[in-house]
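Might you be able to consider the sequence and fold that I enclose below?
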Amino acid sequence: MTIEFETPKPIAQIQFVLKTVAENMMRSQSREFDENEHAIPWGYIEFMHTAMRSTGGGSLTPRDEKPSTPSPLHQGEGRRGEGEKRQPIGYQTLAAQIEMLAWGDVGFYLITPGGGLGAAAVQAAGSPEQRAKFLARFAGEKPTFAAMCMTEAGAGSDTSAIRTRAVLDEATKE
């Protein structure tokens, strides 16, 4: 396996598309929405939802399978040359998407429809049945949002204060 330092072509395409969105839909409107903090940028939300659905992305979450139609908004494995397969780049693609949208405007990025952090946990640790049940909603007709919440006795929502310990059950060896 070789290490590549060039941006893979699918990621470069995504960066180009999202930079256009960031400049024309986010940065150009961010001051207006900062000054009118209770206004909701439905134009951006609807555009991003439609764009992700039409390109097979459905969510800013890595996926197991490729869509039937390749898309610059969907991560793929890509091809280098005949018979030479590229390493999976799903999480690298996700990082590039988030970086470009956050560069556009963090407030806008945080209201981008899709699974985000909440869906990423299901994608990473969920069973195929859980993925089908919980992730399908992000490809529906209406923009759908996810959230991830954590709380722990003695820590509240301060995730850095969460503590845990494991105790071996001698009887079950678990």
